[in-house]
Design goal:
- This protein has helices at residues 77-84, 119-132, 153-162, 191-197, 212-224; strands spanning 5-15, 18-24, 36-41, 53-57, 66-72, 90-97, 110-115, 138-144, 166-172, 185-186, 205-211, 232-237.
- It has 240 residues and is α/β, with parallel strands linked by helices.
- Helix content is 22%, strand content 33%.
- It is globular.
- It comes from Georgenia yuyongxinii.
């Protein structure tokens, strides 16, 4: 069976070296916030050993009218073609996949420990939860080197101000190199920082998303704090 097609509708820079691509949502297409999709270029101008298909988190929330994929602009054949595609160009879409989705029990808070491009499924989950007015308490600890590198930072700050059940804690590990300045948290997420915002560390369900090294480090922090392995969900981002 042929895969459904989608069309590129828009692209925009959402952080230094990071671009979001908006695509047409095929009729009847459904997914759960936090899932991902495989996009395949059709007759690309160039290709390489990594092939013409990439998986990207669905950065968009299901209620939004378009699909969104967000990626670091690494210098690969796929991404060179993607960032130069004409508006209206078609791609094949294979989706949805993945189980990095919000748990069902709203009595347990959801705590997201995310870094860099790992924010993409978190945006989807957080916006959909606000739209659906779920009873979940959501806390997002979002780590980047500088605010210039933090995709969707302003959007998540706005959600923090308007949704009483959503808390954003942004932290920068190299704030001194920022042209914008920074007066928020600094340094990597560790047990003391986490404890300032999560009073019972064993109470929530945790979601770790970002580079593999960051996910591994955060798992170590949680395990040392006594968090059960069944309460830790992960999504590793490689090749970004």
């Amino acid at each position: 069976m042929a895969l459904p097609r989608t069309r590129l509708l828009d692209r925009k820079v959402v952080a230094e070296g990071t671009m979001a691509f908006s695509f047409e949502k095929p009729p009847g297409f459904e997914y759960t916030a936090g899932q991902f999709a495989d996009y395949t270029l059709l007759d690309p101008a160039e290709t390489d050993a990594e092939g013409d298909t990439r998986g990207f988190s669905l950065t968009s929330a299901p209620y939004e009218p378009r699909l969104m994929a967000t990626t670091r602009l690494r210098d690969t054949a796929f991404k060179r073609v993607l960032r130069n595609l004409p508006i209206g160009a078609e791609l094949a879409l294979d989706a949805p996949y993945g189980s990095f989705t919000l748990h069902h029990n709203p009595a347990r808070p959801a705590v997201f420990l995310t870094g860099g491009i790992g924010i993409t499924p978190v945006r989807s989950i957080s916006l959909q939860a606000a739209h659906d007015r779920t009873a979940h308490k959501i806390i997002v600890l979002y780590s980047n080197k500088r605010p210039e590198d933090a995709a969707f930072l302003d959007e998540l700050r706005a959600l923090d101000e308007t949704d009483k059940d959503f808390t954003l804690v942004a932290t920068m590990t190299q704030p001194e190199s920022s042209r914008l300045g920074w007066d928020g948290e600094t340094g990597h997420v560790d047990t003391p920082m986490l404890s300032r915002y999560v009073h019972d560390l064993t109470g929530p369900v945790y979601y770790l998303s970002g580079p593999a090294s960051m996910v591994s480090a955060m798992r170590g922090v949680l395990t040392a704090a006594g968090v059960d392995a069944d309460d830790i969900r992960t999504e590793e981002f490689t090749g970004y």
